[in-house]
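Researcher: I'd like a structural prediction for the single chain below. Treat it as a standalone chain; there are no partners to consider.
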Amino acid sequence: AGMTYGQLSPYLHQHGFALHNLASLPHISVAGACSTGTHGSGEKNGNLSTAVSALEMVLASGELRTLSREKDSKTFHGAVVGLGALGVITKLTLDLQPTFIMQQYVYQNLPFDQLTKNFDAIERAAYSVSLFTDWQKPLINEVWIKARTDAEQKFEARPVFYDAKRATRNLHPIIELSAENCTEQMGVPGPWYERLPHFRMGFTPSAGKELQSEYFVPRQHALDAILAVQRLHEMVSPHLLITEIRTIAADGLWMSPCYKQPCVTIHFTWKQDWPAVSKILPVIEKELTPFRVRPHWGKLFTMSREQLKPSYEKLPEFVALCNQFDPKGKFRNSFLNRNIFGA
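Model: Treating it as a single chain, here is the predicted structure.
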């Protein structure tokens, strides 16, 4: 469970298998990603936690407990996105599929009017689509399109994509940075694990020195939420390195931000200035509140438990499950007390 996706994925591919999706960087641990609802992109792709079919954990009592989707349906769905509150995960069993080949294309400068008129078509254009913007102009700086070569409806990499122009070289999401750290683009075919992430294992992911926040809103509110953030561009842009917009399918995991609802996510990679960022986050959260916003559990947010509570209908059941698995609160910490237990 302490293995990273960068370690696991080549092994799977060498043996003819693949995972359904990966996050933007392969450096993260499998257990940590699944415990926090970490995700990639794709209209039909659930977050990384949805691949878990069984897990083994050591409880505070020392007992070794195994839960599976097949045998322990209710408890299992509460435990997968467990936020570290139930026990120490020692093993995970993941759903696999036959390995597959992908191609990645990047388009530059997608006008906002094209985004608002064609958002659904843009997001459904390929297996995984990510949009990057710094909000400085009314456009999406880069559109990253990841297409499976075995897809029934193949992506046609035309020179222009909704008025965005196809890149002529590999790019970094932050245009000023070298693309050396990034996965191969330009339509060069490669295995799934070398195309689904944006960043290569063995290289510094993203900008390196940074802070991150991310907010989920139900898919039907995607454009309203994006435009709400766009209106804050004068406040956001000076402190921002890049924003990434992605889509994720719904799931049935209690504490997943995508529980029972497909989502769009708006991610912020901030300059490392917490005093400034800590003042901006409450403003963003307030603007997104009408759209039933949920923060990424593994990134920075300032929403209170009272603000989170209405968005998680299974929160009382999750708290009860935590009390059952860890009655003395051995695994509780300030994060869990503040956001889950209200202590």
